[in-house]
Specification:
Helices cover 23% and strands 30% of the residues. It has four helices and twelve strands. Strands 5, 6, 7, 8, 9 and 12 form a six-stranded mixed β-sheet that branches. It has a four-stranded mixed β-sheet with strand order 1-2-3-4. It is globular. The two termini are 26 Å apart.
Length: 196
């Protein structure tokens, strides 16, 4: 993700398949040095019965179900990817038409993801709902097609069914693979507009 290498493993095959689907835009078969390994471990019947998330060999979260573990994993991956991105990045949603990228910068929680999802449903392609990433060398926009986390309210407003996941979403935010809602942007992309 934006140059941050990681590997994800799960003791639950259905959770592993769901994560593979959500993170498919970042999959590679080539060797990448310096990667992090995240392990999602199901409840240990001889232990406290809680699920665990490990980063390398260190437990970073214990929870009573997969939803919180997966939410934390996706948030951690996103935070590290954006923080480690060397060229310019600003918090924004980004959709595209052809090679033209349109960004809408805003604070967290104001609706960038909902707006990006609505644009996808109307024929735009998805570049990101998190960060506008621009190269210093050629001013090209780098797509960052992370999963879109939509609240129950946003899913209702957009008429979206709950995603097919091996954990319940209920009234909580649910992650969607970008290509579940529309096409994913392909480079090269040039910034054509910023909507405030």
């Amino acid at each position: 993700m934006l140059g941050t290498a990681f590997r994800v493993r799960s003791t639950d095959p259905s959770v592993g398949r769901a994560l593979a689907r959500l993170l498919m835009p970042f999959a590679t078969r080539r060797a990448v040095p310096g990667f992090f390994t995240f392990s999602l471990v199901g409840p240990d019947p001889s232990g406290d019965g809680r699920h665990r998330l490990y980063r390398n060999c260190t437990a970073i979260l214990r929870a009573n179900g997969w939803r919180r573990i997966v939410d934390h994993l996706l948030a951690t991956l996103n935070t590290e990817a954006v923080a480690d991105f060397d060229p310019f990045a600003v918090h924004a949603g980004v959709v595209t038409l052809g090679e033209r990228a349109f960004a809408f910068p805003a604070d967290s929680g104001v609706g960038k993801t909902t707006l990006a999802a609505a644009c996808l449903l109307e024929g735009f392609a998805y570049a990101s709902d998190e960060a506008l990433c621009v190269s210093y060398d050629d001013a090209l926009v780098s797509p960052y097609p992370k999963p879109l986390g939509l609240s129950a309210w946003a899913r209702r407003q957009l008429g979206l069914p709950d995603p097919d996941l091996p954990w319940p979403t209920g009234d909580h935010e649910a992650p969607y693979a970008p290509d579940e809602l529309g096409p994913v942007s392909q480079p090269p992309l040039r910034l054509a507009g910023i909507l405030l």
